[in-house]
Amino acid sequence: MELLLSSIELLVRWDVILALLVGSIGGVIIGAIPGVGPAVAIAILLPATFAMEPIVGLTMLLGIYGSSMYGGAIPAILMNTPGTAVNALTTYDGHPIAAKGNPQRALSLAYSASFFGGIFSIICLIFLSQLLAVVAPHFGSREIFLAALLGIVLVVLAHRGQVLAAGMLACLGIFINTVGLEPVRYTRRFTFDQTWLASGIDLIVVVLGLFALSQAFLLLVQADERPKPVEVGGRLFDGLKEVLGFKRVATVSSSFGVMMGMIPGVGEFTAQFFSYTYAQRTSKEPEKFGKGAPEGLIASEAANNAVPGAAMIPLLALGIPGEALTAMMLSVFYVHNVIPGPQLFANQMDFVLALYFALFILNVIVLLFLVFSTRGLLHVVRIPTRFLGIIILTLGFVGVYSLRNSMTDCAIAAGFGIFGLILKRLNLPVVPIVLGMVLGGIMEIKLRSAMARVKTPLDFVDRPIAAIIFGLIVLIIALHIRTYIKSRKQSDN
Predict the structure, then answer these.
(1) Which residues pair with 181 in a beta bridge?
(2) Cα 40 to the chain's mean position, in Å?
(3) Which of 46, 49, 92, 45 lies closest to 73 in space, CA to CA?
(4) What is the reported pLDDT for 361?
(5) For range 453-457, the mean pLDDT
(6) Is the Cβ–Cβ distance between 442 and 144 less than 8 Å?
(7) Nearest to 117 by CA among 42, 64, 67, 58
(8) 386-406 burial by CB neighbour count: b if 16+ within 10 A, else e?
């Protein structure tokens, strides 16, 4: 009871409540604007959160992360253009329902399914917290090193058809993290006698370049567009009752979101694929999927909104981000010398619970905001894309410069922005670079720490948890190789 009261006390502060409101409502607006997305918004806001307390900064970022998918459903349903990448599957059934003259029903279903998925995941996490508090202290340097390695393997293999490219980009991220002074003897690595490289390449500079500036460049070089959404009338509360009519689909889809969110490198797309496939196979009218099936829309939105809460599990319990957005949040912890991992659960469980409650509250705020403000948001959707690109470019450079008042950082960010634009034009993933930088740094520190007590390679796996994680790495790689060989044989035939 004392723990619960302590976590509530952390939340009921004016600055935390304000951050929660700004993050949740701002996330909806950002998600509703096609071409922006939460990664760009979080990248721009990240430098500002460094001046805030950890609970305030993380609450704001969590608000954007957890609410952007709500907003992304608006253009996906009304204009067949997903506001965020993970809302792509929403267009399959959401837009056909709207096109048949029922846009309010489609939006109401999307909001209600998203709310169901978000609340379901938080309930699961609250019950799992005690289990994590017991398991987390058993993770030492070896286990965290292997878990970080597992995260990189999963991230690389998650990019089907682009595994080699994803692997090379992850290695590039690991290499970028090694530039500068190494963390033990402080000798220079890969600086080539350039003093501006001695302090290394900052993760936030890379993130702002790869996500914010590259997106700004992309919007500026493309043809200017001004979307024209349809008008929405009627009540938006009715979807709650309809979602409960499909509670089996909503529950299973949310469960997929929780499971996939907890696995680094998997995330929303895989959760949506499994939930949508399940909904279609178990439906009494599978032929309606892709043509306006309510189960398809519920499965998609419930699954992707169950992921953000679950994605916090590996971040908080092990200090290992599962994707780019949680990697950005990790930097907020490090700036304030709050180290995620076993000790966080052992010593600051009230802080962890406060983050879970913040996720719960933001879902309620977002649902109420959308029900009463959707018609107003339709004007935000109509912002011209080139004007949007100029705004993102300006805010991105302001954010980079504010980090260390350095024009060198701005030049580096611009270089990564151009590189990110090239990757997007080639349809190559950007996320492995960021995760390579974050996980590579974790792996180096934990490996150095573990080597003091390791005499042979087998000593790395002489403890149960380490052996299980190592076994998972071997099994996942073996299964991928088997699948690859099987697909090659089928293509040859």
Answers:
(1) 188
(2) 11
(3) 92
(4) 87
(5) 76
(6) yes
(7) 67
(8) bebbeebbebbbebbeebeeb
Continuous segment of H or E residues that includes residue 21 = helix 14-32
- Give domain limits for the chain: 2-453
Contacts (Cβ under 8 Å, ≥6 apart) of 326: 311, 312, 314, 315
What distance in Å separates the CA atoms of residue 106 and residue 274, rounded to the nearest whole number?
A: 21
Q: Give dist(CA 4, CA 9) in Å, integer.
A: 9
Query: Which among 4, 257, 314 is positioned nearest to 121, based on CA atoms?
Result: 257
Residue 168: how many CB atoms within 10 A of its CB? 16
Does the pLDDT of residue 236 top 60, yes or no? no
| Phi, psi (deg, nearest 5) at residue 33 | -95, 110
DSSP H helical segments within 336-463, as ranges? 342-347, 349-381, 385-404, 407-425, 431-451
- Nearest C-alpha neighbor of 317 from the set 293, 346, 337, 342: 342
Quote the CA–CA distance of 330 and 347 in Å, as a whole number: 18
Average pLDDT estimate for 137-163: 79
* pTM of the model as a whole: 0.74
Query: pLDDT tens digits for 85-122?
Result: 667 677 778 778 877 777 777 888 888 888 888 888 88
Distances (CA, A) of 340 to 23, 346, 352, 476: 22, 11, 10, 26
CB atoms inside a 10 Å sphere around CB 483: 12
> d(Cα 417, Cα 216) in Å, to the nearest integer?
9
Measured N-to-C along each axis, helices 407-425 and 385-404 cross at an angle, to the nearest 10 degrees, of: 140
Asked if 397 and 410 count as a contact pair (C-beta separation under 8 A), the reply is yes
**Residues pairing with 210 in the sheet:** none
Residue 419 has a pLDDT of 92
